[in-house]
Amino acid sequence: MPNTLITGANKGLGKEAARRLLAAGHDVWVGARDPERGRAAADELGARFVQLDVTDDASVAAAVATIEADGGLDVLVNNAGVATTFGVPVGDVTAEAVEAVHATNVIGVVRVTQAFMPLLERSAAPVVVNVSSGLGSFASVLDESRIESKVIDLAYLSSKAAVNMLTVQYAKAYPGVRINCVDPGYTATDLNHNQGHQTVEEGTDAMVRMAQIGPDGPTGTTSDREGPARW
To answer: The whole model's pTM is what?
Structure first.
C-alpha cells in the first residue's frame, strides 16, 4: 500500500485525487494549510491529515517528521496552488503580486520536494507528481486554436511554466525517482470560479494515473488526461 501525500488536498483537484487514490489502495495523507478544513476533508474521505503550509519551512519540516514517523512516503503530489491576479491587466500586476503567487506555486514545490526527497529515496518505487497547467505550456499558449491562448496572466502562467522546468531538472537530478508533471485541463474549481468545463474527476485523471506508475514508468514528462502533452 503506497503512502501518498497530496498538498492542498482539502478541496478541488487535491481532494478528488485523494478520494480516487484511496479507492485505488493508497494510504493518503491530506496536506492542508488550514487544520480545520484539512481535518474535515480527511475525515470525510477516510484519509489521514497533516498540517502543511508549503510557504513555511517549519510547517513542512513538521509534516516530514509526522509522515516519517508513521511509515515514510512513496508518492508526493505537489498540488497546492494559488491564482490571485486573473483579470488584472499585466501593467497593473506588481512584483509583490507575482512573488506571492510564485511563493506557493514554485518555491512551495521546491521547498516540499527538497524536504521529502530523503523519505522518497527510501521507497522502492518513489513518485513525484507536480500539478502544472496547459497555461504554463509555450506550445499551448501560442496556439490560437487552444483555449490557453486566450488567457493573459503574468503571475499564474509564469509560475506553471516554472513548474514544468522544475520537473525536468528534478527528473535529471534524481533518476531513481519517477518525477512528472500533469495538466489537469480546464476544470471547474475555486481557482477559476468553477468556470471550467471538466469535472474534478476528469481533471484528476492524469494526476491519478501518474501517481500510480511503477519504477519502469516515465520521468521528466508532462501529460494530460489524454496522454502526453506539449511543453
So the answer is: 0.95
